[in-house]
Amino acid sequence: MTSNFDGLGLNLGNLYRLSDAQSRSISAENPTGEPGKGALATEGLGADAARDLGTGWKVSPAVSIKAGTTFEVADIEGPGSIQQIWMTPAGEVRFLILRIYWDDQEQPSVETPLGDFFASGWGPFAQISSLPVCVNPRNGFNCYWQMPFRRRCRITVENLSEKDSVLFYQVNYQLTQVPADAAYFHAQFRRTNPLPYKQDYTIVDGISGSGHFVGTYVAWGVNNNGWWGEGELKWFIDGEDAPTICGTGTEDYFCGAWAFHVDGNYQTFTTPYAGMPLVVMPDGKDPNAAQSRFSLYRWHITDPIRFRDGLRVTMQALGWRTGTRYLPLQDDIASVAYWYQALPTAAFPELPDRDYLEII
Q: Under CATH, what is the fold of the domain 184-341?
């Protein structure tokens, strides 16, 4: 067998390859991921249901995260790689904050509400069938972003709610060697509500170092009647004043066209690389009504956007006004930017407080 990183990139073309990587898994039934330490719990949220069966019979399938506390999901010594994360919460997904720390950094490299991380920021269930993120009935959140680390991986979930939350989770990973050119996974959440008039929305800024941008999720709440997606997305690479990459419209960037309309109505869709899985209309009928909400994702898996020193990504919010003129919108926009880069991680903007995060 070979002692290499082949296991990280397995696909149908190389699934037969042997590797010295060691498979591990962390859940409430094996919170440390140690070999031979699963299904040994004698107490947990399932203990009463298993009282006639005893140890090994689903005694600890989930954890309760008390209001205002942080639960440590995983603390793993490397080298290794996170291969898959499955979670399903019983609680408000915008108030559960996922953080991931690499190699003993104090600054998290992933900081985002749980629902937004899994492209489900608004809360209601919508199936997603994409390559790195799948959401299955009902709010079974799955992440397949590969996340290599060299020394340590620590994952936490903070409950900002005033109510306790229950979290079911499983983190599947491998202990294996990590090549010198492997970058670290990052994800950053932002929200602006409302967007100031004539101001671009910032998806991410302040990235420092070498890496590549791999995805965007947006939860868009419309505050005006009419179409909202004329705005362009722009990538400012390595300190540029003008962007190298500039799209032609919001629906174009998310791989749709002509306002996502089919027969005058929005058409939801979910594909391996892009989708609009959720549309919520206030009266259920008018596709152009104010207070409509949309979830959109776009993964740059085959077309990552490379940068050497840094990156800034912006998005315009544009509709139409009288006289066939653009209308700069003042909408409720939240987003998650996903990228890989070398450490260290630059400090993120301070996460909004609970009242600003709340979906009303």
A: Jelly Rolls (2.60.120)
